[in-house]
Amino acid sequence: xxxxxxxxxxxxxxxxxxxxxxxxxxxxxxxxxxxxxxxxxxxxxxxxxxxxxxxxxxxxxxxxxxxxxxxxxxxxxxxxxxxxxxxxxxxxxxxxxxxxxxxxxxxxxxxxxxxxxx
Length: 118
Known about the structure:
Strand content: 35-45%
Strand order of the largest sheet: 6-7-1-2-5-8
Number of helices: 1
Shape: extended
CATH topology of the domain at 14-23 and 32-55 and 70-116: 10 Kd Chaperonin, Protein Cpn10, Chain O
Number of strands: 8
Structural class: mainly beta
């Protein structure tokens, strides 16, 4: 029996980022140790997946009959980040994960400072 291939799904207002390596040199050519690179407050990376966005409450669902079955779909506030964008984000807000031997960062959209789009 063959199992289907695993798929990574991003939830909520988070984005999945492939991190880019930091600059190992200063502008004048000095090599930086790994501890100096890790102490920088921001990091860059390529966005490879995004979540659907933040769920938004539907105030029209507050009826007199709360036992009714609600067939409306969940509304979400859309994401500004899109797949293929380069993001500059706060390093401390990122959570590193490994999926199928690849390293990714999961970052909330609120931690993204700048998006660079082609």
